[in-house]
Please model this.
Amino acid sequence: MKKQLSILAILVGASLNAQAAQSSFFTIVDNEVKGYANGISTDGSGLIGINAKNNTAEYFSTVQFADFLVDRFRFEQGCMLSSSVCDSFWDDNSTGNFAYQWRLDFRANTDQRSNVGYVVSNETDGLVTALGDTPADRVGYKMAGKVRTAFAVVADGNQVELKDAASTQNLAHSLSVPAAIKKLNNGQYLVTGTAASGLNHVVNGDFYRYCFEGNDDQGGDFRYCPGVDTQASFWLLNGSGGFNKLMQAGNYANGRDSVLQTASALGAVELNGTLYGVGYSSTGEYGSGDLDGRNLASYWTLDLNAGTVGATQVIPLPEGQPGKDDAKLQHSWAVAVNDNGYVIGNQRYRINKGQNRPVEMFLYNLNTPTNSAVVPLQDNPLSGSGSEAAGINDHNMVVGWRDSRHQTQPVVNGTNRMQEAFLLNAAAPSNSWYLNDLICGLDDAGAKQCAQNGKFYHIAFASGITADGTIAATAYRYDSESDLKNRINATVVAVKLAPTVKDYQGNAPASYVVSNAPANNQTGQDSEGGGGGSLFWLTLLALPFAWLRRYQR
Model:
């Protein structure tokens, strides 16, 4: 028996010595793209980022790469911080570069956003908003004065303006911005996005002037942006990238002429022989004021042969529909859809919840359209915690960002919370992880090692995910672990997170979790799915004992 125990001790020691080292689940690919990651091609070979000249994101408690002139759901409520903080954004401050400077620059037709990464460009030359299956296929918009015009590029060819006769003749579609490009099974390309509808609120109308020229005393504050009625739009291109036709939804979710009506298609999928678009559509049920319209997460079916878009279908949410008199929610919007029918989206609260007015991500399945969406990260780790979904691949892996684990301060009192990127399995949403827990490994002694490329990173926002699970993310990069802990001297970089396990799905990342919570962790919460690494080691330790028990029998 002593001999057996000696052998066991040797085996256990050998197991510990051989298995103590563990690589990180993601390797950070940092090519010095200094900006906010905005998109990645499906094949992972192209990454684009965006830089904004003026820092208006803090004013709306949202991300720096948000498109304030199109996605009205992000900012219609105006500033949610303390009155002194909100007022400071409109001060005549030449060094602040906040909302006041944005207005001056916009009226002067100054470019405010620029691309970094695979494409280096600006709004005048053409700002890229999304990449296709490869970065050779991409879409974006060009600015001419205050008018935006969508364009597409296929196979690295020339920009093709997505204009039809109405756009050219009377500026009916004078504002057009694409959100995604998808190559269809028939070889054609479908571009999804938003364009002015030419209905009640048009270029140079009152709402348009309030958006671009009004100040905070005159009801400005971006609340009337984009200043024109928009509609969910689908542009069809032929196989060589030539523009074919524009299709717009024929109705809003429940529109009303007197309010600013906005809608957009943010993604598309071919599912069970039917082509779907997902996004949001306007409703005018709530209140009677000019700004009482709300946006509802919606989807549409498309008939390419007939050139028509089906009736707007609203995605049911457990908290009910924005726009009702007693609604808890201000807006909801669908972001993307995958080949399995999973739709990701977000809902924004109208009322305070847990000292916050959060955005919460949701999951919906087109295969079960009568079932309500689910909100997997709701009130996690505390009531009112926020989360926002941004991308999904065909392995059902979802990425986005959420309030960092230690963030408990009341947003409604004037402080925006730090964000942390997440990964989640749509098919089993209890399996989710903070990406910061998947970028550290263990050395031969079992000690945590989080440095990559000789630097330290906090992964704040994940904005896209490829077919094999590579993630596009915005990181705050630090030269030392001390700087990371103290949150000083950060460089904002757009990076790729390349997975150790290609095409991963399910609970695959769990065994790679190495807790890497941000500094000043006040909640004591570990990563979702945390402990996977510990379970891995316990299993290894148990193996020699299992062998000994069988031998004794």
Remarks:
- Residues 8-18, 521-553 have pLDDT under 50 and may be disordered.
- The longest strand covers residues 274-283.
- The CA atoms of residues 441 and 447 lie 8 Å apart.
